[in-house]
Each structure stands twice: as C-alpha cells, then as structure tokens.
Amino acid sequence: MRGSSLLVGLAALSGASAQLHQLATRAGLLYFGTAVGEGQINDGTYMRYVDNTAEFGQLVPENGQKWDSTEPNRGQFSYGSADVVPRRAAANRQILRCHALVWHSQLPNWVRNGGFSSSTLQSVITTHINNVMGHFRGQCYAWDVVNEAVDDNGSWRSSVFYNTMGTSFLPFSFRAARAADPNTKLYYNDYNLEYNGAKTNRAVELVNIIQQAGAPIDGVGFQAHLIVGTTPTRSQLATVLRRFTALGVEVAYTELDIRHESLPPSSSALARQGGDYAAVVQSCLDVDACVGITIWGFTDRFSWIPGTFPGTGAALLYDDNYNRKPAWTSVSSVLAAAATGAPPTSTSTSAGPTTTGGPTTTSTTLSTRTSSSTSSSSVPTGGPEQVQWGQCGGIGWTGPTRCASPWTCHYVNDWYSQCY
Ligand SMILES: *[C@@H]1O[C@H](CO)[C@@H](O)[C@H](O)[C@H]1NC(C)=O
What we know:
This protein is of the alpha/beta class. The chain has 13 helices and 14 strands. An eight-stranded parallel beta barrel has the order 1-2-3-4-5-6-8-9, surrounded by six helices. It has a three-stranded antiparallel sheet with strand order 11-14-13. Helix 1 (20-26) runs parallel beside helix 13, helix 6 (118-135) packs parallel to helix 8 (169-180) and helix 10 packs parallel to helix 11 (267-286). GO terms for molecular function: cellulose binding; endo-1,4-beta-xylanase activity. It catalyses: Endohydrolysis of (1->4)-beta-D-xylosidic linkages in xylans. Residues 384-420 form the CBM1 domain.
C-alpha cells in the first residue's frame, strides 16, 4: 500500500477532526484538492475554505485557462481570468493543476469553424500551447493537454481537431506541450473512463497511439463525474486505474463529484453518496500510481451539475450552507484509516493490504458490517456517543461506536459506518 506507517498523531488524525489534504498526504497521496470557480474569488466565505491548506492542498481553475478564455481571438491572449486561481494557489503554496489546452468545448468559433487545413491547425495548436503553457511555465504540477477526445460510445469524438488531423492531433499536442514546458506532467483527461467500457478501451488506445508515436504522456485524469448508486465499486475502479498505470502513466481523479439524480436527497441517499465517495478514494489509495484526488468544487452552493443536468445535484462534500455532508465524513474517514491504519511493520503478518484492500488493521473491523449497534470493539458500552452523520465503525475506527439518540449506526462499507 501507499507509504506511511505513521502511527504518530493518530488521535489528531481521527476522521472527525483532521482535514482532507492533511490526511491524504499522510495516506501517501500527493494531494487532495478542489476546482475553484473564478466567479467566487471575492466570496469571503467560499475562499476561507479554498485557503484552508489542510483541507485542500491543490487547486485547479474551473474555467479561466480554457481556450475561450485565454485566446478568444486568434493570436490575442488574455490571462485576466486565467491568472486568478493560479495566483491564489501560489500565495497559499498549493499544488496547481492546469486545465485544459486542446478540447472541443469552450472552444472559440474562430478555431471550431475556422476551416483550417491540417498544417494551419497545427500552427494554431502550437501557438496556443506555447503561449498558454509559456505563461504558466513552472507553475503547474500537471496540464490537461488533451481533454475528452473520446465520444461517449467509444468512437473518436468528432471535433475540429480530430476531423482535420485524425488521431495525429494527439501526439502532436503532447509533443508541443513538452516543448513548451518540460517540467510539468502531461495528462489526457476524460469522463466515464471509470466504467471500464468501450470509452475506456478507446482511451487505452489513445495512450498507446501517443506512446507509439514517440510522444510524451505522463498521466491520465479520471474526471469521475459520477452518480449516486451507479458508481463502480472500489475494486472495479482500481482495476480500471491499473489498465492505465500498466502503460507506465500515473493516474488521478481530476473532477470528482457524485450527483443525486433526484433532489433533495434522503438520509439514506446521502449515506449512499458517502459510500460511493469512499469507493473512489479507496481505489486511488489502492493504486500506487494514483497520485491524488480533485473534487470539482466543494460546496453544493456552487456546482456546474444543476445547470448541466437539471433536476440533479447535491454532488459535493459540503451542502449549500457549507455544512459537511456525510460524504465529507466518509472521505475523511477513509483517508484517516489509510493514514493511521497501517499495522506496525515489526509484527510481520500483515502482508500487503492492496488486494482485498486498504488499511489492514485488525479484528474490530467486521463487527461493524452488520452494524446498527456495535458489539465487540474496544469501546465499552456506555462510552462516548457519536453525533448524527458521524462515523461509528469501520476498519481501523477506534472512535465511538454508539450513536446519540435517536440515530443508529448504519453500515456503509467495510471502512465506514455512520450515525443517522
Ligand atoms: C457515437 O456517437 C456519435 C455522436 O453522438 C455519433 O456521431 C457516432 O455515429 C456514434 N458512433 C457509433 C459507432 O455508434
């Protein structure tokens, strides 16, 4: 499993109190981060969360770096919006992901409908990449060089890039990106790769095409715009991540949100959402070359989901009023278990937790599976009670296993039971 067998500070890291980036790094990830909407940069409440580097160690601009923002007219570059989030990340010393260069959407008409020949389009791409990556040179941990080149059905997506250049726009763009900033990770980024279907197969082919052309690619971003109740399991997700790490690239969850298809979500739907978030986070912890997790916003107050998928939403970790949702507790608990749950190396036994999963700790564990009211575990009855939405069981959990009335403890997954 990943790094750290830190047992120090275990109490301080308990899921209820410690924060997500802090826990993620102690669990061996590089970061836990969030997208930041440029429109919220002057919202003091929102920004207090963004600036909390224990919670978010990595930022990505939601819109500012996209083509329609950075080069709205040919050869006219503007970085007013693009600079907003990177500047904040630099001030806070947060890791910056940069997003995105060659994408069919949020693409100005002068590119989309330019009627360019292949060679002219090559020069348009090169000019764009050189300018934008040059502007941010040295600031980005990673760049999403090509975004969403595969259609939902697994075909190559129709776009001005594919329709003009065929798949050669892929290695071409990655080569140009390496030349423009040799010290950033170059990513292919897409959604619905998580389901391991025809689209995933095509994305594997895409990596192969780039590599076989001798062009560089360092990572594949799984956007993970998922749906409560249809999110793949932890092991399914780890399997699909490994299809890509087997090709020698790193992976990351880059735009994670898990939406409810009907609103408002019930208590059990909120718990289910927590379980789905847990599966995603655990799968990243299971795969060594999964470097980090980025959520696409953190509060339901501001999310692209309701605008794009009307009638759905509540996809994030904090509700409209910045209250932590069960999903926050779930993510926090999974990370805390991974941060603190590794058994002391001296006692051998253990073996790798990787296959059957996560933090091997000991017994306690499965007693929570049937949940509702504890039994075994080290906490004596009459011990502390957990509040609504708080964690009350799971592998490695050493906190309260009884819930304050009228709540009861519900099994969510092996790593997490919850009071509601
Ligand atoms: C895939 O979907 C696209 C657009 O939705 C469509 O144009 C294309 O024909 C589809 N391909 C196949 C093989 O069904």
